[in-house]
Amino acid sequence: MTLKHLWIAAAAALALNMPSIASASEGHGAALKHADIDVTDQAQIRRGLTVFTDVCMGCHSAKYVTYKGLMDYPEIGISRELVDELRGDKPLTSGLITDLSPEDAEVSYGKVPPDLSLIVNGRRGGADYVYSLLTGFEHDPAGKVPDGNYNKYFPGNRIAMPDPLAWLDHDAADTEELEKQAQDVAAFLAFISDPHQNERRTIGKYVVIFLILLTLVLYLLKKEVWKDVKH
Ligand code: HEC
């Protein structure tokens, strides 16, 4: 392929992508809220895990995460005791699987709730989207969508998931707690979507330090080599 061909291919790829870029920026839901999450914050991840198992697992699974796997990341400090408490009599090697069968979900909600193992990577806006979605239940301004299924961040606004944190009916005093639960579970889901991100960040830091030291050594070496040469 010549350079000219490459240019043509690149332009064609860009042109093909254009409609998707345009439609994405049209925005089907409201602009997302920013989730204040920290995937290195042990306490937040642990709180998010309990929101997940207490609330979300009523309908959703995270099948790529096993109970045993939860203990693989010492940096989030999930103990064997907590894992045993959460799993009950399920085996350690079982994934975080909901007891709701797809058939029953279909009957109750008209849709099978998606697996949440990779949802943060799979949705535009990632953790911000999950957090916004959980706090985005409202009364439909047009009065068409029943309460609990109108969500201002969901594309098309009608969602088959009934308001899981009861955001719509909450007392004003609980707002802070619900915001926190939504952010915590978004943090947990962000963590499991990419559990090695903390490790990568640590390695990244060492790589940068190594490169700085290497530059220094090479600089000193250069000075040493050239010191007797008159410029
Ligand atoms: C009562 C059942 C139920 C519970 C509990 C529940 N969900 Fe859902 N969820 C659903 C259903 C059904 C859908 C599919 C919605 C659709 O496509 O219209 C869904 C969809 C989703 C989606 C994907 C939305 C999209 O863009 O496709 C996310 C993210 C989500 N739920 C997160 C959560 C979290 C986090 C919790 C716990 C706080 C939770 N859900 C609790 C039933 C539930």
Comma- or semicolon-separated keywords:
single chain; 231 residues; mainly alpha; Cytochrome Bc1 Complex, Chain D, domain 2; two-stranded antiparallel sheet; binds heme C
Report on this structure.
Helix content is 50%, strand content 3%. It contains eight helices and two strands; from the N terminus they run H-H-E-H-E-H-H-H-H-H. The protein has helices spanning 3-26, 42-54, 80-87, 102-109, 119-122, 126-134, 175-193, 197-226; strands at 62-66, 95-96. Helix 2 packs across helix 7 and helix 6 runs antiparallel to helix 7 (175-193). The structure holds heme C.
Radius of gyration (CA) equals: 24 Å
Level of helix content?
40-55%
Spatial arrangement of strands, main beta sheet: 1-2
C-alpha geometry: elongated
- Order of SSEs: HHEHEHHHHH
Please give the domain count: 2
CATH C-level category of the largest domain: Mainly Alpha
**Poorly predicted segments:** 17-27
Strand tally is: 2
Share of β-strand residues: under 5%
| Helix run count | 8
- Mean pLDDT across the residues is 88
Spatial gap, N to C terminus:
45 Å
CATH topology term of the largest domain: Cytochrome Bc1 Complex, Chain D, domain 2
Bound molecules: heme C
Question: What structural category arises from helix and sheet content?
Answer: mainly alpha
